[in-house]
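Q: Got a minute? One more chain.
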Amino acid sequence: MQNKDFPLSQDESAILLKKGIALHKQGQIADAQEIYERLIASEPKQFDALNLLGVIAYQSYNYELAVELIGKALEINPHYSAAHTHLGLAMARMKRYEDAIASYNRALAIKPDSAEAYANRGSAFEALGHLELAVESYDRAIEIKADYAEAYFSRGNALKNLNCIEEAIHSYERAISYKSKYAEAYSNLGVTLRILKRYEDALVSYECALAIKPEYAEAYANRGNVLQDLKRLEKAIESYDRAIAIKNDYVEAYVNRGTALQALKQVKVAVESYDNAIAIQPDYVDAHWNKSLGLLLAGDFTQGWELYEWRWEAANTAKNMRHLTKPLWLGNEDIGGKTLLLHAEQGLGDTIQFCRYAKLIADLGAKVTLEVPKALVGLLNGLEGVDTLIEKDQILPAYDYHCPLMSLPLAFKTELHTIPSPGTYLYADAIKRDEWCKRLGAPKNLRVGLVWSGSTGHKNDHNRSLTLEELLPYLPKGYEYISLQKEVRTEDRARLASSNIRYFGERLKDFSDTAALCALMDVVISVDTSVAHLAGALGKTTWVLLPYAPDWRWLLDRNDSPWYASIKLYRQGKEIQWAPVLERVAKELLKK
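A: Always. Here it is, folded:
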């Protein structure tokens, strides 16, 4: 053989290429790379060497070089399907997904039965959010290669994101049937089973994933989420701890660990867990947002209100942000003689709770325009401090500044002892009250207003709401029970119809009707819903039933509320059961 600096003969090149490919397959990458480079030095247009050097660059995470080298190879031989596929893979790593799809299409034009090209094209479509096209591409890959476990796995991911949950589960199961040691498929199957609330099945799936891959941090974290759903909070924390021990920069695990600790009312440790996440990733939204909720729950309003502004970045609440032309007011500018637009942003209960700040704005010499959902217009008409009340999505009148209702505590630097208007600040319409008085007739006994469930869309509804079946055994006989709920869940309808609870449904047209009916009650018993806030704002004697880990506004370990003087709180104990709470309420009711 000649010196390596001299051109190689065709036979020498073939022998050397064969050796380089063998070394490459054996994982001796540096030796293979040296051979490919020698081949190119001898013949700059050596297709195989350029292409394989590009593959090595891809395997070494040097994607720009991979695109350059494979691109040069394809200039020499544009008819090699696998090179187009490899070029697409490198482009996809650079997030050049459109270019990657074009490369995969060229590969398929040359070799229409390339299952790999179809599968990789599916991944690029998925990255662009074209989920239906991704599924179609995975389906084509599977048609060609029936046992293509990875294509089934990716297909499952796309179907899950399309909310085709049953189909996604089937796809993961097929992936596992062809590749029994597929830890990632087991883990993602667990995630999907959790969506269907098949929690025990999800746990089995995570255990399978961990049996295959014991150091699988994501599986431990996902298992922690399911254990948290099942209220096995100590076990959930253990699972998050295992995930963090494996992957010490796992910010999501730190945050979810914090929520589990907070659910155990270990707020100080929960905040430390959020701080760990923030130390790793200072702009991690969920860590700041959850920390704000923890601080507010603990009564630390000074830090809590400031961090509560992170809600504008959080996935669940960012959608509520208004993009208005006038400046935001957070208490820093003098607004005397100005008009301030206050606008509702979250739930109806939130609006009822924070509309009390309108008077404080007026006391600063400003005119107040209050924008609220249609359901609250009748109720809030005449609210003290409000000059103009408008329905949401109507044309806004002129204003100088704006402020979301739930930023007002920050603007006024509210502390526990400075919460405004803890007494009555809303009033039922007199005419509607008279109408409801006639509709109810003369009271036969003590009137008890009931709210046992809230909106199913509330993220904590599974903890805060009761079924009517749970509540009814604890309602003493001899009282007049009246439902203050407009909506009743399907599973409660038959039981409600056969009970002695009076239900008015569609006659409750908006919250002014609910307020009028509520005003006629001797006591209101409610889970944590907007009606609890309404009753408190009306100054009605109200008993609120709270889960063990309540929403932040109810604070910790107290039976009163600084927000509402007329509210008494009945909290779950560590057993996280409603029965003891309902027993206490029944005993209190019997004393009236």
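A: DSSP finds 29 helices and ten strands in the chain.
Q: Perfect, thanks.
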